[in-house]
Design goal:
The protein is an all-alpha fold and 411 residues long. The protein has one domain: Growth Hormone, Chain: A, CATH 1.20.1250.20. It contains 20 helices and no strands. α5 packs antiparallel against α18 and α14 runs parallel beside α17. The radius of gyration is 20 Å and the shape is globular.
Length: 411
C-alpha cells in the first residue's frame, strides 16, 4: 500500500513538472512575438496592425481548438495531448525562424503554432492535475499552471539576449528546438500505465462531445465563468502579452530592459498563481476570484502613468504579476466543483476558448488603436473597465454547487 501510494505521488508531481515546462515553452514562444514586433516593423516592413492581427488570428485558432483539446485530454490523457501540442508549437517556431514571407509566417504562427498553443494550455494542465489531486488541488494546479508565466522569468530575458546578440530568427529557433526536445523526455517519463490514471478507462461510457457541450452550457455557473474569463483574456493575453513589450519600446526602453521588466512580471505571476492556488484551498473562492479581477483593474492606472519612468514600469510589473494568471487555479477549482471532473477538460476548454476570444479582441484592438491614436492610453482605460466588469460578474456565482455530485457520479 505504501509503495503504491509513493508511485502515485511521483506520478502526480511528474505531471505537475511537465505541465510547468510545457507551458513555459509555449507561452515564451507567444511572448517572443511582442519582443520582435518593433524589429519586424523596421526589418520586414510589417505594420503593428498586421503583427497584432496575426496574434489575434492565433488566439481565434486557440479558441477553436481549446474545447476539442479539452475533450481530447478527457479521452486520452495528458501524455499524448502535451506531446502533440509541443510538436505543433515547435514546428511552427522553426518555420517562423526561417521565413521573411508574411503568408508563410501567418501559416506557421497563426495556424500551426496556434493549434499547439490551444493544446499546450492552462486548461489542459489544470485538468490533468485536478484529476490526480484530491488534497491540495488548488496548490498543485497553481504550481503546474504557473509555468505559463514563471517559466518566462528565465526564458524571455534569455530570448532577448539571443535577439540582441544574434537575430530574431535565432530566438524562434531556440524555442522550437526546446519544444521538440521536451517531447521524448515527457513521453518516456509519463508511461502509458501512469497516464491511464488521468484518462478514463475503455469500459467507462463516453458520451459524444456534443452531448457533454449541451449539458455544460445549461449550467449558470458555466456562463459566469465563461464571460468573466473572456474579459480576463482581453486584459491579459490580449493587451499585456501582445502589447506590453511594444508599449515599453514606445516609452523608450530597449529590448533587454523591457524583457527584464516582463521577466519580473512573470516571476511575480508565478508566485501569484501558486499563492492563489493555495488560497483557493482555504477561503471563499468566489470572493478570491472577484478580488483578483478588481485589483487587476487598479494596476492599469499605474501603466497609464509609466511615461519614461522605468521604475514605474517595474512597479506595474510587480503589481500586475500578482493578479495576472492568478485567476487560472481559482477558475479551475470552481470548474471542478461546479461543473464536475468528468467533463472538466471540455468545460475548461470552452471557458478557455472565451479567454482566447477576449484575448484576440485585445490583441487586435491594441494594435488598431495604436495605429489610430499613436498611443496606448485608450487601450489601458478600456482594460480598467473590463477588469472591474469581470470581478462583478464573478460575484454572481453561487458558493455551493447544487448538482456537482450528480455529475461526479459518472466519473
Amino acid at each position: 500500500m505504501s509503495h503504491t501510494r509513493s508511485r502515485s505521488s511521483v506520478l502526480q508531481w511528474l505531471v505537475v513538472t511537465f505541465g510547468f515546462l510545457a507551458l513555459a515553452l509555449a507561452f515564451s514562444a507567444r511572448a517572443t512575438l511582442g519582443l520582435v514586433m518593433p524589429i519586424w516593423e523596421q526589418e520586414l516592413g510589417w505594420s503593428r496592425s498586421f503583427v497584432s492581427g496575426s496574434a489575434a488570428t492565433a488566439l481565434l485558432v486557440m479558441a477553436t481548438v481549446a474545447p476539442f483539446a479539452g475533450h481530447f485530454i478527457d479521452r486520452h490523457g495528458v501524455r499524448l495531448t502535451l506531446a502533440l501540442g509541443l510538436f505543433l508549437v515547435g514546428v511552427g517556431c522553426l518555420i517562423v525562424s526561417s521565413t521573411s514571407n508574411a503568408i508563410i509566417f501567418l501559416i506557421a504562427f497563426s495556424a500551426i503554432s496556434a493549434t499547439g498553443y490551444g493544446i499546450v494550455a492552462t486548461h489542459i494542465v489544470s485538468t490533468a492535475v485536478a484529476r490526480l489531486f484530491d488534497r491540495n488541488r488548488g496548490l498543485a494546479t497553481g504550481i503546474a499552471t504557473s509555468g505559463a508565466t514563471g517559466g518566462q522569468f528565465l526564458i524571455v530575458p534569455l530570448i532577448a539576449v539571443v535577439l540582441t546578440t544574434f537575430s530574431w530568427r535565432w530566438s524562434f529557433l531556440a524555442i522550437g528546438i526546446g519544444c521538440l526536445a521536451l517531447i521524448p523526455i515527457l513521453w518516456w517519463t509519463l508511461t502509458e500505465k501512469g497516464d491511464s490514471a488521468i484518462a478514463p478507462s475503455d469500459c467507462e461510457p463516453t458520451p459524444s462531445i456534443w452531448v457533454d457541450v449541451s449539458a455544460v452550457i445549461r449550467k449558470p455557473a458555466f456562463h459566469i465563468l465563461f464571460w468573466s474569463f473572456l474579459l480576463c483574456g482581453f486584459t491579459t493575453a490580449g493587451v499585456i502579452e501582445t502589447h506590453l513589450l511594444p508599449y515599453a519600446s514606445f516609452c523608450g526602453f530597449g529590448p533587454v530592459p523591457s524583457a527584464t521588466a516582463y521577466g519580473v512580471l512573470s516571476a511575480v505571476n508565478m508566485l501569484g498563481m501558486i499563492g492563489a492556488g493555495w488560497l483557493a484551498d482555504r477561503m471563499n473562492r468566489i470572493v478570491l476570484l472577484g478580488s483578483i479581477y478588481l485589483l487587476r483593474g487598479v494596476t492599469f492606472i499605474v501603466l497609464i502613468n509609466v511615461g519614461a519612468d522605468y521604475e514605474m514600469l517595474v512597479v506595474f510589473a510587480l503589481m500586475f504579476g500578482a493578479v495576472d494568471y492568478a485567476t487560472v487555479p481559482v477558475t479551475a477549482s470552481l470548474v471542478a466543483s461546479h461543473l464536475g471532473l468528468r467533463v472538466m477538460g471540455l468545460s475548461m476548454g470552452m471557458i478557455s476558448a472565451g479567454h482566447s476570444l477576449g484575448a484576440a479582441a485585445g490583441a487586435f484592438s491594441g494594435g488598431y488603436i495604436f495605429d489610430l491614436t499613436m498611443g496606448y492610453d485608450w487601450v489601458w482605460i478600456t482594460s480598467i473597465v473590463l477588469a472591474v466588469g469581470a470581478g462583478c460578474i464573478v460575484l454572481l456565482l453561487k458558493n455551493n454547487p447544487q448538482d456537482a455530485t450528480v455529475r461526479e457520479a459518472g466519473h
